[in-house]
Amino acid sequence: MSKVRIGVIGAGSISEAHLSAYVQNPHVELAAVCDQKGDRARAAADRFQAKRVYTDYRELLADKDIDAVSICTWNDTHGEISIAALEAGKHVLCEKPLCTSVEQALEVEAAVRRTGRLLQVGFVRRYGTNTKVLRRFIDAGDLGEIYYAKASYLRRLGNPGGWFADRKRSGGGPLLDIGVHVIDLCWYLMGRPKVKSVTGNVYTKLGNRSNVGNLSFYQAADYDAALNTVEDMANALIRFENGASLMVDVSFTLHAKQDEVTVKLYGDRGGAEVEPELCIVTEKHDTILNVSPQIDERTFDFMGGFRSEIDYFVECCLGRAELIAPVEDGVELTKIVSAIYESAAKGREVVF
Question: 0.85 cut: is pTM over it?
Answer without folding.
Answer: yes
